Amino acid sequence: MKNFNIRKRLLDGLSFGFLLATAYFSIFMKTRQELEAGIFEASLMAFLFFAMGALASLLLDRSGVQTLGGQIFRSSQIRDPQEATPWHTTFWGLQLIVTFAVLVASGIFVTEVSIRELMSEDGFQGAVRIFKGITSPNFEILPKGILAIIETIFIALISTVFAVPVAFLLAFFSAKNLTRGSFKGAAVYTLLRSLSNMTRSIEPIIWAIIFSVWVGIGPFAGALSLMLHSIASLTKQYSEIIECVDDGPIEGIRSTGAGTVQVVWFAVVPQIILPYVSFTIYRWDINVRMATVIGLVGGGGIGQLLMQYQGLAKWPEVGCLVLLITIVVWSMDAASSYIREALK
User: How many Å apart are CA 189 and CA 170, to the nearest integer?
Assistant: First the structure.
């Protein structure tokens, strides 16, 4: 019940607080420059609006009104099967509609959506010119492009191969069902999960920039950046698979007096090996596509070649490279899908 109330207050605080903040900024016409200049003031206002939203949720709850937070997070509560009131006529339904509408309107404003710019004749003609160049590929650079795409594939392969054993080991210490029961285990779980989340939150292209400065521009920097990101992503995926295993075999092995390593090896590993293989193949597929992007910042592979031709506005050459990338990505996706299907 305590967790239910906290999550309800959090969601309602965000919803009502966002609506209050939107109303405030609309009335006083606060601009982005003003917010950047007064970052402390903006942060204080954001906290104040959230607190006011949470307070509004509390007052409505005491008045017997069902808010959006209460509706979403009451899965553990008793639901009335006879509820026949249309959702859009309820308070929480109205709250959902208004919040979504304001979110969309704010998104349109922030992203500066402009139909006039989209229909601009000069801009459209420029886009058509680039598209014509890309769709008329220059196959004279095909040998160079093939060598670059091979390098891209191997960047993805090496980064995946080196990431898998590290992620395999860390996943057992990042699974809640294997680390609960002791303070040390909980501390290790929290530390690894935090590091994994922070590492994954930094895009591979940023890691590629860092490693390009560290080890120099080239495929090694690209492989390192993808390996680091893959370790964090696979650790999360692997650990979540472990958390979903059947507890029966674990309890059975423990009842024989087996140690922790024996429990993991004989009760957990047999249940996770096939999903692990499937996720690993899928990760290699992802890394092939990511390897193309990180080449734009010096990570080697076809992305680096693509950046060179794009910078020179050689669109037929870009079209040839795009065609190569499309063929490889499509082939990898088809192959990985087939292998994952065969492993089921």
Answer: 10
